[in-house]
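User: Run a structure prediction on this.
Assistant: Running it now.
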Amino acid sequence: MESVFHVDSYWRVPLNFIYLEPEPESNCVTTIENRDYRAMDSMAKRTGGMTFYFPYNQRDQFGQFLYQHMYTTVYRSQLLLSNDLPVCANQNVYNPVSVDIAVEQMVIVATGRNLSLVLTTPEGGLTQYDTAYDDGTNYIWVKNGPYTGNWLITMWTSEQTLGCNYKVFQKSYHAPCGFSSRSSKIFYPKSINTWTNPPLSGKNEKSD
């Protein structure tokens, strides 16, 4: 795992893991408390990513989840809030997220047992949102058109002693952008050997 972390330090990207429960006939019993799952989850947290667990009877849904996750978080999105809780009930009652005028979508990605999202407007009222994915363990919620102000995020769960993770992203828009857009960073690594994955020498140069 440390080798994976060091390689990722060159690319500066979050690592996300999808953990599929083996079939019952394999006699390999796994849960989110297993050592191998915890190792993946620890690596994901260190790089700003998440680990998504799919029980055997829901393994056929991970393709749908992967599509929704990529669609809502990969293109023109910025991380606003990250919370990794060993015990979900120990979170703050309200977790503030500041929204500026450029935001056209707010996306909340979460993992945990039987979670529900409470989203509060800057005026203190509850608001509706869309559910892009929900299988009882992995969740993607989308709020379209959040206006300027400090929004409040609260995650409720019926499993008070279990952990939960969630991240809040802002989306500029899904439409393609031209070269004039300055919402992204580009890093240029270089390597003396073209067949190696990580750069062996050089520096990162940022271009707007």
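The two ends are 32 Å apart (CA to CA).
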